[in-house]
């Protein structure tokens, strides 16, 4: 799904009173910068329109940023990512947004969240699922960046792990970690280990005793 964010070029910059006036008019001040733009663009976002989109996106969601002038003429259109969001300390409302404009056809590095799906088989047996990395740095072309990395843990048993090398990624996408780094694991509680090993000891002991008894009978004969 394409997310289009429309913004208007902003001429008022740095003046607190003027910026407060913008916010009172339902405009969120923002800036767009990065290697894909010659110089930073000071823009304004219509609060209601932006918040509708903001509910469904994250830092790794590719956006189409369209900037217009006062008359509505399109000045700029480019792939963008939300870099940073500032919130009001009292009301928790969005006060300012930074957009990052990557350079087309050049790989970028960006944080992508990990989304675990399914219930691990090991958890069903009493294990504890531990997500070691809730997000990872991904290297990819801007238009190939995945919104999330989905990891299915359904078949993950007690003491088993999913490492970076085990994750299937889209072509051209690379996780910037060692291939052996653990992403998700099922921890075996100490008490559960004792319960699993105890029966094995009990089954071997009678066999030893039985063998010993047979040897004694042979000696008596």
From TrEMBL:
> Does the keyword field hold rRNA-binding?
yes
NCBIfam families reported in the protein's UniProt record: bL25_bact_ctc (TIGR00731)
PANTHER family named among the record's database cross-references: RIBOSOMAL PROTEIN L25/GLN-TRNA SYNTHETASE, ANTI-CODON-BINDING DOMAIN-CONTAINING PROTEIN (PTHR33284), RIBOSOMAL PROTEIN L25_GLN-TRNA SYNTHETASE, ANTI-CODON-BINDING DOMAIN-CONTAINING PROTEIN (PTHR33284:SF1)
* Gene coding for it: rplY
Signal peptide positions on this chain:
none
Q: What is this protein called?
A: Large ribosomal subunit protein bL25
Q: Where is this region: Disordered?
A: 195-221
Question: What GO annotations for molecular function exist for this entry?
Answer: 5S rRNA binding; structural constituent of ribosome
Large ribosomal subunit protein bL25 L25 domain ranges (all copies):
6-99
The family annotation for this protein states: Belongs to the bacterial ribosomal protein bL25 family. CTC subfamily.
Function noted in UniProt: This is one of the proteins that binds to the 5S RNA in the ribosome where it forms part of the central protuberance.
Subunit field text: Part of the 50S ribosomal subunit; part of the 5S rRNA/L5/L18/L25 subcomplex. Contacts the 5S rRNA. Binds to the 5S rRNA independently of L5 and L18.
A GO biological-process term:
translation
Provide an example Pfam family for this protein: Ribosomal_L25p
| Example of a GO cellular component annotation carried by this entry | cytosolic large ribosomal subunit
Q: Which UniProt keywords are listed?
A: Ribonucleoprotein, Ribosomal protein, RNA-binding, rRNA-binding
């Amino acid at each position: 799904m394409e997310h289009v964010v429309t913004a208007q070029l902003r001429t008022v910059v740095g003046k607190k009173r003027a910026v407060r006036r913008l916010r009172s008019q339902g405009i969120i001040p923002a800036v767009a910068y990065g290697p894909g733009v010659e110089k930073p663009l000071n823009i304004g976002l219509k609060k209601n329109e932006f918040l509708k989109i903001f509910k469904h996106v994250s830092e790794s969601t590719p956006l189409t940023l369209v900037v217009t002038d006062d008359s509505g003429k399109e000045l700029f259109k480019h792939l963008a990512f939300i870099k940073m969001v500032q919130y009001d300390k009292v009301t928790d409302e969005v006060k300012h947004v930074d957009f990052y404009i990557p350079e087309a056809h050049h790989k970028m590095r960006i944080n992508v969240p990990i989304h675990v799906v399914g219930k691990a088989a090991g958890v069903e047996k009493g294990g504890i699922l531990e997500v070691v990395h809730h997000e990872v740095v991904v290297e990819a072309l801007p238009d190939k960046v995945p919104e999330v990395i989905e990891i299915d843990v359904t078949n993950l048993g007690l003491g088993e792990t999913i490492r970076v090398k085990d994750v299937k990624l889209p072509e051209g996408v690379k996780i910037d970690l060692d291939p052996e780094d653990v992403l998700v694991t099922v921890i075996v509680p100490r008490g559960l280990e004792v319960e699993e090993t105890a029966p094995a000891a009990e089954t071997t002991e009678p066999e030893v005793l039985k063998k010993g008894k047979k040897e004694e009978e042979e000696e008596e004969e």
